[in-house]
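Quick note —
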Amino acid sequence: MSKAKAKAKQAKGRLKESAGSAMDNRKMQAEGSSERIAGMSEEMPAKAGDKTKRAKGGH
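Predicted structure written out below.
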């Protein structure tokens, strides 16, 4: 997954989490939190790939 898609997933999760909090809906909060964390874990390989490219001299 690309870094942009992972960031979008994190943002969607944050919004869902906030909406769940505002509506006092614990299930929605948990789903948002789960989605946000999934986005963070999907972003990690993309970040590592970027660092590897920079270390090898590529941009």
